[in-house]
Amino acid sequence: MKKKWIAGLGGLLVIQIVLAVALNMGSDSYGAFTPNEKLAGFAPAQVDAMLIETADKKAVLKKTGGEWQLPELDNFPADQRKVTQLIDTLAALKRGWPVATTASAAKRFKVDEDEFERRITLEHGGDTVAQLYFGTSPGLRKVHARTADDDEIVAVDFSLFEAGADNTDWIDNEVLKLDEKKIMRAEFPGFTLQRQDGKWQLAQLAPDEKTITDNAGELIKKLAGLTVESLFAAGDNPELEKNTNPLKITVVLDDDSRLDYTVSKLEGSGYLLQRSDQPTRYKTADWEINPLKDAERKKLVETVEAAESPADETGDKPEDSK
What we know:
Elements: H1 2-26, E1 49-53, E2 58-64, E3 67-70, E4 76-77, H2 80-92, H3 103-108, E5 118-124, E6 127-134, E7 142-147, E8 154-157, E9 183-188, E10 191-196, E11 199-202, E12 209-211, H4 213-224, E13 230-232, E14 247-253, E15 258-265, E16 271-275, E17 281-284, H5 286-293, E18 301-303, H6 310-314
Antiparallel strand pairs: 1-2, 1-5, 2-3, 3-4, 5-6, 6-7, 7-8, 9-10, 9-14, 10-11, 12-18, 13-17, 14-15, 15-16, 16-17
């Protein structure tokens, strides 16, 4: 009887151990794992082309002459910092604890050849140096990942928002930006601003008028800092708002070159913007253009009183005539 009782306790202990192991395996054990091995063994300097794909979109980036460009957008310049940052991030990714290795798990976690959230192919000289699959997310800023040459599915610290799969996600939004110091003159409808002694002044001021230099400087800052939302392809015919005239602005730089801006209101939101030094047509946001469109001379000038005579300033009164 005593032996049976001991055997029963031993069996119960075995069951408890099995349950504890099962529960531990079912938890996010990889979250406590400290990874050291790189997910993909490549050096960022190797990469001269990158393809980012989803099920229905793709972004193609290629480095030409040391600069990242978008071949499918007529080699429009890409955001150099953003592209470099993604490649550096991918190269630094480290393996977490393996989640699974089977083909069915690859489909379930969406890191399969045919089912994935992102497939990123990195190339050098036309040869693939790494191909990574990213799928479902097990937690904040974590995503399941797998390399094309490995069946192991791991969780890595990465966000899919960093890997947009549309070419327009990668354009250099600052291609229209100017160095304020190089602008010497800006011609708006109804008034002209010109740089004088380091400050912005209205041209053709009346004797009793004075430029509000802070307002003028702010207007030039907005013009110099224009950014773009997206591009219009050669075959695109954006619909313009009816019965509105284009806004035309001319900038003269310190080398006497001229930049002519033509801005037309799009139907709905945004503006179509063209600049004389670039063939591309851009879409810009309302908040970018409205301050330029609404600029008026009266907002940039104030009236000043006539200068007082020296006698008025000292308070002396003329002598009474005798």
